[in-house]
Amino acid sequence: MSERLKFPADFLWGAATAAYQIEGSPTADGRGRSIWDTFAHTPGRVRGGDTGDVAAEHYKEFRSDVALMAELGLPAYRFSVSWPRVQPGGSGPANQAGLDHYSRLVDELLAHGITPVLTLYHWDLPQELEDAGGWGNRDTAARFAEYAGLVAARLGDRVPMWTTLNEPWCAAFLGYASGEHAPGHTDPALALRAAHHLLLAHGQGTAALRSALPSSAEVSITLNLCAVMPGATSPEATDAVRRIDGLGNRLFLDPLFRGQYPVDVRRDTARLTDWSFVRDGDLDVISQPLDMLGINYYSPTLVDVGEPQAGPSPWPACEDVRFVHQPGPTTAMGWAIDAKGLRAVVHRVHEEYAPVPLMITENGAAFDDQLAADGVRDAERISYLRDHLAVVHEAIESGVDLRGYFVWSLLDNFEWAYGYSKRFGIVHVDYPTQRRVWKDSAYWYREVITTNGIDVHE
Ligand code: GBH
């Protein structure tokens, strides 16, 4: 038996990318260096020594990529602007040649009837700002607000949806605590400070956007929220859930929607920092009203406790927390496939926090795709997407104000520390030729969009 689930008529379907992961052209039109250029060019940081120097050559080929989006029937496209293209050194006047590129991209999208959904920061901090302390430096928040104002002044007349930051958890804790991402520091106290300055940047950036954008423009932030569940039935495992939920979710949701940091997280991390980087008035800036909350979800998180482990971790003061492998199918990243996590995250945010509409700004999976003569048979990706969309549908039915869904990703791309070894696209990129080949999931997603629904088997 097959059942057809229809989505609301105004549900927004899209696909997402990020600048460093697809653009290439690292010196075109006066672009400056970002922390990801430095990191990727440091031996040992990225698998296979891969860098974003060429990536999917989207900077050069954006017109044919927009034509591809139109063939896919995409109503919306979520992309990020590269800060060092707009301000090569992270401050001062705009580099008009860099802004011109995004202006052309936006015009090309609009000409094809595709709504541009713009993210200002997807991890590519100008290197000069990192040299001045990066996100550990409070001044970086002010620099971000200045940058936001420049982009809004140029594109605000045409871009209706704006996101300040993509996944500040990753920027802070993978960048400054575990060192898996740029700039590669391994200092948990610095990472907590960076998290605060990222939130402050969001707040100051939101204020800058509000004053530069037409009142119809929507402003949001995107968080990677974890569905944290106990990996054992013990009080210790329950407490591990509280701590990881605190650092992964509440550390961001509480300041944004309640104007305060979670007391338990401050207490758990007190041996690392006195939190004196939080100044009077900061939480008012951080908690100003938003129009939308973006959620990125990939996989659930199971936790327990064990012998304390030494060495870098993205989870400050959690040396005794163990991440438990959930039995069952996984993606090529080794991430468990379980759409129940998305359900938990969406309902939790709806019930406990957000008085604002929600949007799934990223969801998708990497698999070991094989390029065949006539395409890519990626049935696993289709089933991953279908299962997660069924959860989205169910959440909407049960009253969650969930406005749209963006698949990660439109194209195979530079998967950060994994380089080009992991493919998340619904469209395959043959890197030697830069040829785009539709995977079966791309045909499937086009059908989802045109029929505004999914088929599920009972
Ligand atoms: C997203 O982040 C990014 O926005 C995107 O650029 C990227 O390409 C895409 O996902 C695929 O990776 O418990 O320490 O193991 C991914 C967010 C956050 C997902 C960390 C995995 C594991 C946390 N990731 N999470 S840990």
User: What is the architecture at the second tier of CATH?
Assistant: Alpha-Beta Barrel
For this structure, the CATH topology is TIM Barrel
* Total beta strand runs: 17
Bound heterogens, unique: ligand GBH
Q: What is the arithmetic mean of pLDDT?
A: 98
Give the fraction of residues assigned to helices.
25-40%
Strand portion, in percent? 15-25%
CATH homologous superfamily? Glycosidases
What does this structure look like?
This protein is α/β, with parallel strands linked by helices and 458 residues long. The chain has a single domain (2-230, 251-299, 333-457), classed as TIM Barrel (Alpha-Beta Barrel). 39% of the residues lie in helices and 18% in strands. The chain contains 15 helices and 17 strands. It has helices spanning 19-22, 35-40, 58-72, 83-86, 96-111, 127-131, 139-155, 168-176, 188-212, 235-258, 263-268, 282-286, 340-352, 379-397, 440-451, and strands at 2-6, 12-16, 76-80, 115-121, 161-166, 218-224, 227-230, 292-296, 300-305, 321-324, 358-363, 371-372, 375-376, 402-408, 427-430, 435-438, 453-457. The strands form five sheets. It has an eight-stranded parallel β-barrel, surrounded by five helices. Helix 3 (58-72) packs parallel to helix 5, helix 8 packs antiparallel against helix 9 and helix 13 runs parallel beside helix 14. The longest helix has 25 residues, at 188-212. The protein is globular and about 55 Å long. The termini are close together. The mean pLDDT is 98. The chain binds ligand GBH.
